[in-house]
Amino acid sequence: MDTVSLLLLGLACLLLSFWRQTSGREKLPPGPTPLPIIGNILQIDVKDISKSLTNLSKLYGPVFTLYFGMKPTVVLHGYEAVKEALIDHGEEFSGRGNFSVSERTAKGLGIVFSNGNKWKEMRRFSLMTLRNFGMGKRSIEDRVQEEARCLVEELKKTNGSPCDPTPVLGCAPCNVICSIIFKNRFDYKDKDFLNLMEKLNENIKILSSPWTQIYNTFPALIHCLPGSHNTLTKNIAYIKSYVLEKVEEHKKLLDVNNPQDFIDCFLIKMEQERHNEQSIFTDENLVTTILDLFGAGTETTSTTLRYALLLLMKHPHVTAKIQEEIDHVVGKQRSPSMQDRSHMPYTDAVLHEIQRYINLLPTNLPHSVTCDTKFRNYLIPKGTIILTSLTSVLNDNKEFPNPDMFDPGHFLDESGNFKKSDYFMPFSSGKRICVGEGLARMELFLFLTTILQNFNLKSLVDPKNLNTNPVANGMVSLPPQYQLYFIPV
Q1: Residues facing residue 455 across a β-bridge
Q2: How many Cβ atoms sit within 10 Å of the Cβ of residue 341?
Q3: How far apart are CA 467 and CA 226, in angstroms?
Q4: Measuring CA to CA, which residue among 210, 472, 404, 175 is closest to residue 294?
Q5: What pLDDT digit, counting tens, does each position of 409-431 carry?
């Protein structure tokens, strides 16, 4: 084929792709004109997508369309649009949008990246099992309190020397999940446990990198280019292998009349459905579901805890008021309990403000519509990816005056009582709300109050000079690395 023919063929392909992009646009919400193949990627800062979405919403309104590559994505910006979709039209917007990097390993299984009846059944089973093992009840609170005490003992071993809190703050919530899934917790120095934590931590960094946003936009690149996404795949393969070993151990010791943990319950369900060829209860789905529970129940909580300590060092007057409330309500002789929270409005407000301020999941995980959906006079075709800007909800300046400032007053009324807000959506909202929300909120309260009951936090630099801006703002907002002193009270 000669050069002219090649050029004409290339031009024809470009025109075809452009026609495909524009043919259905008239019914979709407005948005910037996409370029052939690459869409609107040049108009988006992949290092801070949420900021780009805010700027575009000023031009196109709270509901607009972007093209990440050749596929349209409908963006919902602001509380009203997000609430209308995820709550008022929850069923239609309950699909999980494609997340190419994770799809390579999840393969539509588990809870986070599954869809349809597969997702509904697995979510229902997981919630029921977690509740049976105490989530939201006193029994799980006992586990978290025990882990909080272990965390304090581990921090005492620093002997007031400067330390990076990342490893130990990762181990604590991970051990709570391990006690539910594997029955047993691990010693903080266990090599396998630390290796598992290292892989999980590295994966969150990779998923929050600009390169991951590029790969998700152009999934074909995943198969032909080197990059950190390959490290992600290897890490997940390692974790899957580790989990599979535990599953095989459980199979040998299984007592169907006395299940000890999540794995036992899943294996019993597998046995009950062994004659059902369409059953979703398989070894592969068990492993993927456990990975989802680890990801949702470990890294998000540990990242929030790391960010929390950084903010508390940055604002020592806030820390002092929390410790004053702890002294008044809890004292020194017993561990904090969930019953204390209702008597500690300032501490509760600080915890809410930490989650609001750090904006852990700026654009949420992608949703999709489960059917052709009419939304605000637009027609969104079935399967269209939906991006919900949680940043725009958590930073709403009418609900939270001066949203760029860290201010516990955002959640306090004039009398100093805790004030709820419908705009508080760090765990998303609607049918895809985080399965472990209740556990995460319990851990944040009990871990932080137990730490502050036993230690003063001391920064290595003047608190005014501490940087609290995220170092990554992709899928997850990650705090900068830092060290601090844990000074026993």
Answers
A1: 488
A2: 19
A3: 32
A4: 175
A5: 999 999 999 999 999 999 999 99
Place of tokens 């992709």: 474
DSSP state of 97: P
Task: Name, in order, each residue with C-beta under 8 angstroms of 272's C-beta and a sequence gap of 6 or more.
Answer: none
Encoding tokens for residue 324?
């004053």
263 in Cβ contact with 135 (< 8 Å): no
Residue identified by tokens 């008044």 is: 328
Condensed to tens digits (0 to 9), the pLDDT of residues 219-230 reads 665 566 666 767
Whole-angstrom Cα distance, residue 197 to residue 202?
9
Compute the distance between CA of residue 351 and CA of residue 196 in angstroms, rounded to an integer. 28
Q: Where are the alpha helices (DSSP H) in 298-432?
A: 300-314, 316-329, 338-341, 345-358, 390-394
Positive/negative CA dihedral, 138, 261, 166, 150: positive
Alpha-carbon distance of 61 to 75, in angstroms, equals 10
Q: What secondary structure letter does DSSP report for 411?
A: G
* Pairwise CA distance, residues 159 & 488, whole Å: 8
User: Global pTM?
Assistant: 0.91
Q: Is 434 annotated as a binding residue?
A: yes
Indicate the residue type of 276: N
Specify the amino acid at residue 362. Answer: P
Question: Is the CA virtual torsion 192, 197, 203, 205 positive or negative?
Answer: negative
Q: How far apart (Å, rounded) are the C-alpha atoms in residues 146 and 356?
A: 28
Backbone angles phi, psi at 128, to 5 degrees: -60, -45
Q: What b-and-e string marks burial along 474-487, b requiring 16 or more CB atoms within 10 Å of the CB?
A: bbbbbbeebebbbe
Tell me, what amino acid is at 481?
A: Q
Structure confidence at residue 107 as a pLDDT band (50, 70, 90)? confident
Please answer whether residues 443 and 179 qualify as being in contact, where contact means their C-beta atoms are separated by less than 8 angstroms. no
| pLDDT at residue 222, as a whole number | 58
Residue 349, token pair as written in the block: 């407000």
Q: How many other CB atoms are there within 10 angstroms of residue 219's CB atom? A: 16
